Structures are given as C-alpha cells and as structure tokens.
C-alpha cells in the first residue's frame, strides 16, 4: 500500500470517529437542554414512611422554616424515592411561606406547605380535581384549627422541653402563635416558640400523609367538619341567595365576635 493511500484511509477513519463522537456529544447536550416535560396534575403518589417524613419536617423547619419543612418532607422525600417529575420542583421555593408568607403572619406556613404537596398529588385545573384536593386541604386546615397542638415529640429534639399544646381556633399564624405565647408566657422570638412551630410542622405533615393514604385507597373521610357556629354564619354571609358578602369557611368567632348582641346591627352573638 502506498503511503498516500494509507494516509487517506487513516484520515477517513479519524474523521468518521470524530463525526460519531461529535454527533453523540450534540445528542447528549440536546437532551440536556430539553428536559422531560412535566406531566399534568395530579402526579402519582407513592406511600412514604410517615415517621421519617415527620422527622424531616421537624428538622426542615430549622433549615428553611415551616412552609419549606412541610413541603420538603413530602415532595422532597418523593424526589429521593421516585425522582421525576418531583425533581422538577425545587423545594427551596417554599421558603417563601415562612411565618405566614414572608413573615407577614397570615396563613400558617406549615399549612401552605402541605397544601401545596396535597394539590400536586390530588389536584389540577379541572373543577373535579380542584374539589378533590380542596376537601383534603380543608380537613388539614380544620385539624390545625381544632386540635391542641403540637402533638409530635421528636426523638432527638433541638430543644428538649415540656411542650404546652394549645388550640389555635384559626389557621392564621399570628393568632396561633399569639395564643400559644399568651398561655405559655414565652416570647414569639424565643427558641421555645421555634421548637413549638417545628413540632407543629411535623404534625401537619403526619396528618396530611394520613389523608393522602386514605384518598389513594378510596377511604378518605374528613374527620373535622365545619363547626356548627361557623356554618350558621356561612348560611347568611356565604350564600348567593342571602347576604353573600364574604368568602371562607374558617372559624368566624376567633376574630369577629365577642359573644354579645351588636346594639347597632342586632347581629346575634356568636
């Protein structure tokens, strides 16, 4: 074989190899730039260990506070155990819900976190999917309103203390915290109050997981109905054929009434 012909063959082999290599590199990078498209909601739920999730929620509170701790305990666990599509949402996003959304003291961040997780797993844009998620979320909210919390006791607490539980009668952060502070005499900025909210974050996750398990087994039944007094308010204020001047189904008397007849409006006592 002549030297010139050998160089041609070698050059062809080398060029072909480079072409194959570059084609493979282009394909890999195209795939990396076009990640899997996230599916429509709801995403399929997989059972997770409630004990581990509660612990993750508790310690997650100390990492990114209540909303992050609650959302990460459920969705972060599914990221680890299932992967896609749950890996498509950064759980750090839910740090926004800290202390009632950006520390404004509105809806408790733990409730926002579990509500987001529940909606991912049961909800969607369609009204039927919305209703499915809302019935679960509302039961978690009323659990928070009506139960003496916290109940959760961590195995290795950040702060080892005898924890006093209180009934919030509201899903609102500043009301829940203020009631607990009034009973315990601890300050809102204290390490004791931090510990209390870390444990409540775990409580909300545990109850949310209980409801999700029931929903996926077809046995969901809300344990916390709207209180009779609240329903009485809604019969007038939240019906289209009545006053229809408000929205909501949280407890009314926590904020609006003192138990006396209003002399101006003659509104009955709550």
Report on this structure.
The chain is mainly α and 270 residues long. It contains 8 helices and no strands. The termini are far apart. 32% of the residues are buried.
Short description, anyone?
This protein is mostly helical and about 270 residues long. Helices cover about 55% and strands about 0% of the residues.
Distance between the termini: 104 Å
Q: Indicate the overall shape.
A: globular
Helical segment tally?
A: 8
DSSP strand count: 0
Uncertain runs: 13-23, 25-34
Order of H and E elements: HHHHHHHH
Oligomeric state of the chains in view: single chain
Structural class: mainly alpha
The biggest sheet, with number of strands, parallel, antiparallel or mixed sense and barrel status, is: none
Average pLDDT reading: 86
Q: Tell me the fraction of residues in β-strands, as a range.
A: under 5%
Helix percent reads 55-70%
From the alpha carbons, calculate the radius of gyration and give it in angstroms.
27 Å
Give keywords.
single chain, 270 residues, mainly alpha, 56% helix, 0% strand, globular
């Amino acid at each position: 074989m002549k030297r010139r012909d050998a160089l041609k063959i070698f050059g062809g082999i080398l060029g072909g190899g480079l072409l194959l290599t570059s084609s493979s590199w282009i394909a890999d990078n195209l795939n990396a730039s076009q990640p899997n498209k996230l599916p429509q909601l709801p995403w399929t739920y997989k059972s997770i260990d409630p004990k581990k999730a509660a612990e993750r929620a508790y310690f997650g509170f100390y990492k990114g506070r209540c909303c992050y701790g609650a959302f990460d305990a459920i969705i972060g666990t599914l990221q680890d155990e299932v992967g896609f599509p749950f890996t498509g949402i950064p759980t750090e996003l839910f740090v926004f819900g800290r202390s009632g959304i950006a520390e404004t003291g509105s809806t408790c961040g733990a409730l926002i976190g579990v509500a987001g997780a529940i909606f991912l797993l049961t909800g969607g844009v369609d009204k039927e999917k919305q209703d499915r998620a809302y019935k679960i979320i509302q039961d978690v909210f009323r659990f928070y309103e009506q139960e003496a919390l916290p109940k959760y006791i961590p195995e290795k607490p950040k702060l080892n203390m005898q924890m006093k539980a209180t009934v919030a009668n509201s899903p609102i952060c500043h009301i829940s915290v203020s009631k607990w502070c009034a009973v315990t005499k601890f300050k809102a900025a204290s390490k004791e109050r931090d510990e209390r909210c870390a444990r409540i974050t775990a409580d909300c996750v545990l109850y949310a997981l209980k409801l999700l398990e029931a929903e996926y087994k077809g046995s969901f039944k809300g344990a916390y109905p709207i209180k009779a007094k609240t329903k009485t308010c809604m019969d007038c204020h939240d019906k289209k054929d009545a006053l229809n001047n408000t929205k909501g189904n949280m407890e009314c008397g926590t904020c609006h009434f003192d138990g006396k007849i209003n002399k101006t409006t003659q509104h009955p006592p709550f």
